Amino acid sequence: MLYARFCGGAEGVAQEMRFGAAVEELLRLKAHRRPRTLSELRSVFNRMMRALPSLRDRALHLIDPREAEDILMQVFATPRQRTKGRMLLHGLFALGCRRSWCWSNPISSLDAPHVEESELHPLSWDELRRLLRVARRPQHRPCMAALGLMLWAGVRPAELERLGWESLLWDESVLLLEARQTKTGGARHVSIYPALASWLSEAGIAQQGPICPPNWSRRWRQLRDEAGLIPWRQDVLRHSFASYHAKMWHDFPRLQAEMGHRSAHLLRTRYLSMRGLKREQVARFWSAGGI
C-alpha cells in the first residue's frame, strides 16, 4: 500500500488498483443504467485500452495530469471526442478517490478542450411539407404519431421508443416523459400544442400500447427515404422543434424546460437556427392542421 497525501481533502491510503479493473468496477456500479449507455461507456474505455495496451494494467495512482492528457490526445482525434473522453476519465478517477485507489483526480487540473459548435439547421418549409405529405400515405400512417411527437414535442428518437400512449395526459394537455424514459434521466413535461393534437387525431389515438409501430426503425427509414430526405440529418426534427418554437414565442426558459436541457448554453449555441423561417409559416406550423 502507498500512503496518499490527500484525496478530497482527507488523509487516505492509495491502494493498488489497475486501470482495467477500475473500469470494470465503474461499470458494475452503473449496471442500473440503460444497456445502450453501458455499451457506450464500455466502448470508449475499451478504445483507450486498445490504443494504449499498457494502460489496462497501469496502476491508477501512477497516472498524473500529464499522462492523462497524453491519453486523451493519443486516443481521441477531435475536441468533441476528447471532451467525452475527459468526462469519462474524470468519473473514473473520482471513483478512484472515493475508494482510495489514487491520491487525487488528474483530470481536474486539465483545461477542457475548446469545441467549436456548428450551427444545426431545421427542416426547411418545403422539406417539412414533403415529409408530412409522405407520412399521410396509407403505408406510412402507422408512423404518423411517432413522427408528430418528434416534430412538435422535440422527443428524441431513443426516448420515443420508450413511450406509450399513456404518456399523453390529455386532461393536462401535456406529454409526460418520466425519468426512466429520457436520455438525461430527468422527467419533463412538453405541451401538447394544437398542431400536435390535430396530427395525432388524424393519425388515430389509442388508449395504451407503444407509440412506435412494429419494425419502427425500418419503417421510419423508408418514410424518410421516400420523402427524399437523404442523407437524413440526425435529430433534425428535434432541432426543428426548437427553432420553430423560438421563432414563434421567443420564450427560452420554457423551451429549455420542454427540451429537457440543464442549461440554456447548448440551446443558444447549437439548436436555434431561425434563418429562413418566415413568420407566417411558423404560425401555420403551430396551428391545428396548418401544414
Tell me the domain tally. Answer: 2
Order of helices and strands: EEHHHHHHHEEEHHHHHH
Give the radius of gyration: 23 Å
CATH second-level architecture of the largest domain: Orthogonal Bundle
Mean pLDDT: 88
Characterize the largest beta sheet: strand count, sense, and whether it forms a barrel: 3 strands, antiparallel
State the low-pLDDT regions, or none.
1-13
Count up the helices.
Answer: 13
| Overall shape | elongated
Q: Determine the strand fraction and express it as a percent band.
A: 5-15%
Q: Strands of the largest sheet, in order across it?
A: 3-4-5
- Under CATH, the topology of the largest domain can be stated as hpI Integrase, Chain A
- Number of DSSP strands? 5
- Amino-to-carboxy terminus distance: 69 Å
| Helix-and-strand structural type | mainly alpha
What is the CATH level 1 assignment of the largest domain? Mainly Alpha
Helix percent band: 40-55%
CATH superfamily grouping of the largest domain = Intergrase catalytic core
